[in-house]
Amino acid sequence: MAISYITDQIQWDNFIDSSSHGLLYHKWDFLKLTEKYTGYELLPYGIYKGEELICVFPLFYKKIAGIKLLFSPPPQTGIPYLGPVMDKNFESMKQDKKEANLNLVVEEIDNEIKKIAPNYLSVVLVPGFLDIRPFQWLNYQMSPKYTYMIDLKPELKDIWEGFSNICRKNIRKGEDLKCQLVRSDDTSILTDLLTERYNEQGLNHAVDPAFLNEAINTYPKNLILNCLYDNDELIGSTLNQAYNRYLGWMGLAKSNDSKYKNINEFMIWQLIQEAKSLGFEKLEMSGANKQSLCSFRSKFNPQLELYFTISKKDILGKLAEKFYFNFVKKKLSLAHRN
To answer: How far apart are CA 311 and CA 59, in angstroms?
Structure first.
């Protein structure tokens, strides 16, 4: 059998650790926490070629009001990407072997998806997983997305020189304020700031603080919570994933005080220095898909990187999607604002 569930945590985590494609969200305990706090059932697939494990592919399943949903990652977790992770040898293979292995992976997972017969399927692939042709050939829908990456390999002074003039100016304003970025383990600081900011915009921030707390306690070296203070005044907070790459996960919520209008530039510069000091070669800044956010992030001279969402939905799935975006999210948002 070329595909089966993996139940051995050590085997799963060793595979993720050895691959350049995996993120912390792919780790076994993180997946189990996601299952615990979302109510979605984790389906931890492993795809084999002979006796060799060549891919792991976590999916999450739930049936709501008779509608079967299949996600990777599930909604309202804040997890940006999940999907398949290819083995450590994949990138160094010759192209014909790469394509043969990828075709096998997609064929096997497609067979499992057909058995489940979800009304709605959504998988967000990690940046850099670019060969989506096998999914396309099986009539999955594709949606290209973008993220920003800052190359940390150059010297700090060279990274600094790449920033726009206004970006450097705003960073210096933060330095003049004597603001300090300090580590914390209190996720309520972040979630309270995010909830307040989202509510002001009429949006819903539904990530469970208990989920974040348990995730940080499980991975204290890989989930870094920083708080920005001006003397004793809290003005921002950010939670970052430090595993394979330094990824700005959620946060940068700032005070409404006008004197902190441009403090996020200072905050990101501090994170760049932290990520480089920890030995990471990349820092990812998400938010390259909204024009309103791009003008801020592009000031740091990042590289644009592509990723894909693959999906399938039948008539029921399309109706469920429309109901979710037009009613459920709006209702949740109003509940948070009241």
So the answer is: 13
Domain layout of the chain by residue ranges = 3-139+307-337, 148-301
pLDDT tens for residues 178-228? Answer: 888 899 888 888 877 777 766 665 655 567 888 988 999 999 999 999 998
- Which CATH entry fits the domain spanning 3-139+307-337: 3.40.50.720, 3.90.870.10, 3.40.630.30, 1.10.3720.10? 3.40.630.30
Distances in whole angstroms, Cα of residue 170 to Cα of each of 89, 197, 232, 268, 317: 43, 21, 21, 11, 46
Tell me the three state secondary structure of residue 240. Answer: strand
Instruction: Write down the pTM of the prediction.
Output: 0.90
277's tokens? 């000091």
Dihedral angle of Cα 292, 297, 298, 300, to the nearest 10 degrees: 160
Burial class of residue 221 (count of CB atoms within 10 Å of its CB; 0-12, 13-18, 19+): exposed
Report the C-alpha gap between 198 and 116 in whole angstroms. Answer: 35
Give the architecture (CATH level 2) of 148-301.
3-Layer(aba) Sandwich (3.40)
**Cα distance between residue 317 and residue 37, in whole Å:** 23
